[in-house]
Amino acid sequence: MRHRRLSALAPTLRPLPGLLALALACLPACDRPERPRPAGPGVTPAAAGVTVAQVPAVALEAKDSKLSAEQRAIVVAQVGAVSITLGEFEARLAREQPVVRSQFASVQKRKEYLQKLVQFEVLAAEAKKRGLDRDPDVVEQMKQAMVRKFLLEFVQDEVDPATIKDADVKAYYDNNPGLYHKPEQVEVSHILLKDAAQAEKIAKELRAGSEGNTARLVALWNDYVVRLSEDKATSPYLGALGLVAKTPVQGASEAELARQAAIPPAVIEAALGAKPFDIGPVVASPLGHHVLMVTSRSPAVERTFDEAKESIRARIVKRERDLRRQKLLDDLRKGTAIEVNEDAVRLIPVTPVERSPKLDNPELNKMERAHGHDHGEHGGHGEHGGHAPEPPAP
After folding, report:
1. CATH number of 184-299+356-394
2. What is the pLDDT of residues 187-206, one digit of tens each?
3. The pairing of beta strand 185-193 with beta strand 181-182
4. Confidence grade of residue 331 (pLDDT, cut at 50, 70, 90)
5. Do residues 30 and 6 lie in contact, with contact meaning Cβ atoms separated by under 8 Å?
6. Where are the domains of the chain?
7. Which of 173, 213, 240, 339 is deepest in the core (most CB within 10 A)?
8. Strand, coil or helix: what is 339?
9. What gap in Å lies between CA 193 and CA 288, rounded to an integer?
């Protein structure tokens, strides 16, 4: 286009052949961008003479920034006493989610984003003018933000996995066999009856009444076990016997071994062969006749040291990091005058919490307590069996 316009003007330029030659020679050079000045593009005339050494240093906030330090120092907006530099603007864009950031390929979108930052600073200045910077809720939020930033920036103290000795990893593996060598286990509940005919009748009623619906089966089970089971030790827990297996888990406690030894082998054998939430045949034992319901199944676990060592190393690293952070907190507490009156918290009245209609359904509540949704007094996996908590790393 530029070449066509110059060609059209050529007749009028004949008296000035030197100027025309100069203009044509300038065309390639004019297409190149100007060389950036020390103070960066867009600099005001007053700052044009500022040398690079005189430009205020701005920290590189955006990762992999392509801007120079001088460019990052350019003020893109002045809102009262607050300056927003190009570096700060770039950093804010970088903190946005990738999907949002992709919109800012458009210069117009970047301008709109800048206007939002200006609007934010205007509102923040007005809020401060009205004393909201001293509002208790604002102060509390600021304290929480400070603590989060402190933990992120000053309490990193990461532990290098390479510093964890192989001997420590092997010791953890050897000392916790129950985590890496487990037989197949099922969690089972029972209704114990002395009379075989009554046991068969109850099993038949449970199958027919549930009509293949698990929730209906559990609701019926909870009613039958509380009213009819002759095992008064487990009936308060809806007949839960806990996890059972053909062989005990390695490293099981004496209490756990005693619990499983008290369960008749015929019950364990039948439970391992049953499907979850399916009423199978009645099982006879020296204790009486058992109606069984399996509620969960855990497959066998067999992990070699080589398979487990990296996860163990990661566990030890996390534990070591947590210990270091706890030590820091303990040291800070020692250097701070602290007085606590725990008894005073009893004075706060308990406010009833509104529950949803679903949670007020007694049958659903029983079902959740019985089968793993309530880990309170008996915990589903507590004294009646279940997964032992993983031990702390050494």
Report:
1. 3.10.50.40
2. 999 999 999 999 999 999 99
3. unpaired
4. very high
5. no
6. 56-136, 184-299+356-394
7. 240
8. coil
9. 6
